Amino acid sequence: KNCLFLLLLLGASASCFKLPQKFIMKGEVSCESPYQEVGGRCMFVDFLNKGTWNDMRNHCKSLGGDLVKLNDPAVYNALILHIHGSGFPLVYYWIGGTDEGHEGLWVWIDQEPIQMGTPYWANAGCDNDQMPNGGTGQNCLALDYVFNMYFNDLGCSTEGYVICEQ
C-alpha cells in the first residue's frame, strides 16, 4: 500500500513539478521543433547543415540548444538506435566534447569530464588502439561513422554534421 501511495504521489507531483530528465519516462518529454525526444532528452540530428565544430556549436545555439552531451550509456544507445532507425546518413556528427586548451583532458561543453574507454570511445587498427589518439591536432569530439558511431577525436576544422540538444 505504501508503495502504491508513493507512486500515486509521484505521478501526481510529476504534473506539478518538473522532474529531472533521468526520471522522465519516454514520451513524457515535450520538445520544440526541430527537436525530437530521444532517450528522454530533446535532440536534433542535423544532416543537412555541415561545418566545423565551432560552426556547428553556433548552429545549435541558434536553434536554442547546444551540442549534445552523451554522458549516459542508455541515452547514447537510444541516440544510435534513433540514427539507424530513422535512416539518417552515417557521417561524422559533432557532439559536445573537447580537449582543446587542456590536451588529454576531455570535457563536455559544461566542463564535466568525459568518461574514457568503453562504452563510448572507438578502437582502431591492428593494435586495437583506444581513441582518442589524435594528439594536439584532434581536439573535438564526433560520432564517427568509420568506427560504427563510437566517439572519435577529429580536427576541429573538419567539416561534419551535428547533433544538438535542447
Q: Could you explain the architecture of this structure?
A:
InterPro entries: C-type_lectin-like (IPR001304), C-type_lectin-like/link_sf (IPR016186), C-type_lectin/snaclec_domain (IPR050111), CTDL_fold (IPR016187). This protein is an alpha+beta fold. It contains three helices and ten strands. It has helices at residues 2-16, 53-62, 73-85; strands spanning 36-38, 41-51, 66-67, 93-98, 107-108, 123-124, 129-130, 140-144, 150-154, 160-165. The strands form two sheets. Strands 1, 2, 3, 4, 5, 8, 9 and 10 form an eight-stranded mixed beta sheet that branches. A two-stranded antiparallel sheet has the order 6-7. It is globular and about 45 Å long. The chain starts with a helix and ends with a strand. The relative contact order is 0.20.
